[in-house]
Design a protein that fits this description.
The structure holds two protein chains of two kinds. Chain A is an alpha/beta fold. Chain A has four helices and seven strands. In chain A, the strands form two sheets. Chain A has a five-stranded parallel β-sheet, with helices on both faces. A two-stranded antiparallel ribbon of chain A has the order 4-5. Chain B has twelve helices and 21 strands. Chain B is rod-shaped. Classes of the chains: A alpha/beta, B alpha+beta.
Chain lengths: 121, 472
């Protein structure tokens, strides 16, 4: 498998610790150079302000709060991102419906395919 | 037949002429079930049959005979007093024209009232000269009573329909609204104009899919056009204020005895509540699906961690099942309280209990605490890691070592301590295992708390502080 993610920086915004670790390990396996994890809306925004990543993996629901404020920030700043959700693509509001979505649970290959779309172009 | 003897000669002559005229009809008059009487040219009652006397409640004699009518009192059908000079017989004698089907109320001296239908005809002699009037009075009291009863029964029926909580309305064959009940007005949010509003009283309508639905294509209009009933067609009514209510329509054409369609009646069933319940159910299913998918992702994470760090497949299986069991225990205790919280002591007892006889040397001490869902799930997984570590490397690996779990609530935070005693001295692991990583990620990042792991000569000490705020 080629490593389109090498030298890439990814921010994972995921509130559930075990899932966050899982995605972190997957990204590590895919060869990402830097992986940062945030578990809350505030921590996610703080991480973005600290340093802009090449891609954000964004859980739609953060501890009961929708993650769309982060999505709006990313869209405004032109930062690529993909959603992860237990709701599936139909659970997204219309304005976000055309964004890439990974339905939980997902495989490292599915995550790798999504990343390749962002990083190979 | 009663004959009133006239008191003077002129009258006697007139009476004789009348009698001659009447006698031509023989004794028939007596046998008729209707009252018949004859007045002479002056209106004096010359003859009457027994039925007439019965209806009048009196038998007029020569002296007392009233003119034009033998009743004690007469009223119009509306109940207004009618003077004898206005009676049908008087009218005939005045203008020579017959009077047909005049409804009157006769009152007898005892107050008894009878509804009658009066018909009066002029009487002529052989030269065509008007010589009197014959009046026929027919008792229609029973008919009037039946009509009144029918009207009352129809009114009761309308009262009942009006009192129904379901919107009901009726139209004529052209679709013009003729009747609607109070529930229909409430449902439409407006009062239609009788005879003017067509097909439905709602301000606007839409199909179930939300497309505008013209009134002439609504279920009632279709039922009238096709002359066929429709059972439960779904549409949406919009009130003048813009509020929409989905409903099912049951329009049914009505036909008369000759099969001619005379209109239709429609019942509307408001299904707003039903639709809202469907939406709530969908939201619940979506939320359940979300939780299931997240839980499956968590299980996926536990499986990956268990496989990755194990020395052999047996250890991977044991670790994975212990973690899955701890997660399941947390869910069990949360489900008991509808996911509002979990009894911390009971849940931790169950989690450590999974480690069998070694668990007997794990002491629990703390006040009753309702752990919020995320705190409960995290603590179940963390305590399972601590117990597993203690059994493998820590105090519980020694013959008499113990682990003391204690907690208290301080300043809206849960302070939780895991202290190992009586085992080998603890040493910091060379690399961060799942347990330490989990503690840092879940307690610190996810729950915004603090964790302190001390590797002391007496054994491991893990001190946690977890906020119990609303976000947990």
């Amino acid at each position: 498998m080629s490593k389109p993610c090498a030298d890439r920086s990814v921010l994972v915004v995921e509130d559930e610790a075990v899932i966050s670790m899982l995605i972190e390990d997957m990204l590590s396996e895919l060869g990402c150079a830097e992986i940062r994890c945030a578990a809350t809306l505030q921590a996610g925004i703080a991480a973005l302000e600290q340093r802009q990543p090449d891609l954000v993996v964004l859980d739609v629901n953060l501890g009961g709060a929708p993650a769309f404020p982060i999505a709006e920030r990313l869209a405004a700043g032109g930062v690529p991102f993909l959603f992860t959700t237990g709701y599936g693509a139909t659970g997204l509001p219309p304005q976000w419906a055309d964004r890439p979505v990974l339905q939980k649970p997902f495989t490292v290959e599915a995550l790798g395919d999504q990343l390749a779309k962002f990083f190979s172009g | 037949m009663q004959t009133v003897e006239p008191s003077d000669e002129t009258a006697a002559a007139a009476a004789a002429a009348l009698r001659a005229s009447l006698l031509r009809s023989g004794g028939l008059l007596e046998r008729l079930p209707v009252g018949v009487y004859a007045c002479d040219r002056e209106g004096r009652i010359a003859h009457y049959n027994a039925r007439a006397a019965e209806l009048w409640g009196q038998s007029p004699g020569a002296q007392s005979a009233p003119r034009f009518c033998g009743a004690h009192k007469t009223f119009t059908a509306d109940g207004a007093p009618l003077a004898p000079a206005q009676s049908p017989a008087a009218q005939v004698l005045e203008n020579g024209q017959r009077v047909c089907d005049c409804e009157l109320i006769l009152e007898a001296p005892d107050g008894r009232r009878t509804y009658v239908l009066a018909n009066a005809e002029p009487l002529h002699d052989e030269h065509g000269v008007l010589i009197g009037a014959v009046t026929c009075i027919q008792d229609i009291t029973k008919l009037k009573d039946a009509q009144a009863a029918l009207r009352a029964s129809q009114a009761r029926g309308l009262d009942m329909i009006n009192a129904m909580p379901t919107p009901v309305y009726a139209t004529d064959a052209s679709g013009a609204i003729l009747f609607f009940n109070a529930a229909a007005v409430r449902f439409w949010g407006r009062t239609p104009v009788v005879g003017h509003d067509l097909w439905c009283g709602s301000a606007r309508m839409y199909t179930a899919e939300g497309a505008p639905l013209p009134h002439d294509q609504c279920p009632m209009a279709i039922a009238l056009k096709t002359r066929s009933p429709i059972v439960g067609a779904e549409a949406v009514a919009e009130r003048p204020g813009g509020e929409r209510a989905p409903f099912l329509a049951y329009p049914s054409p009505i036909f008369d005895d000759n099969g001619v369609m005379i209109g239709a009646i429609n019942m509307l069933v408001d299904i707003s509540e039903h639709k809202a319940a469907q939406a709530r159910q969908k939201a619940l299913i979506d939320e359940l699906n979300h939780r299931v998918k997240n839980t499956l992702a968590t299980v996926q994470g536990l499986a990956v961690q268990s496989l990755r760090h194990a020395r052999d497949p047996g250890e991977a299986e044991t670790r994975f099942i212990a973690r899955l069991t701890a997660l399941s225990q947390a869910h069990d205790h949360l489900t008991r309280e509808a996911w509002s919280g979990a009894d911390l002591a009971a849940m931790l007892q169950a989690v450590t209990g999974a480690h069998r006889e070694r668990a007997l040397r794990i002491r629990l001490d703390g006040p009753p605490v309702r752990a919020p869902p995320r705190v409960a799930v995290t603590l179940a997984l963390v305590v399972n890691e601590l117990a597993d570590n203690a059994i493998t490397y820590g105090s519980l690996s020694a013959e008499s070592g113990e682990a003391h779990m204690s907690w208290r609530v301080e300043a809206d935070a849960l302070k939780f301590d895991w202290i190992e005693v009586g085992g080998p001295a603890a040493a910091a692991p060379q690399r961060s295992g799942f347990g330490t990583r989990m503690i840092a990620r879940a307690i610190c990042d996810e729950l915004g708390g603090e964790a302190l792991l001390s590797f002391e000569p007496a054994g491991l000490a893990c001190r946690l502080r977890i906020p119990l705020g609303e976000k947990s």
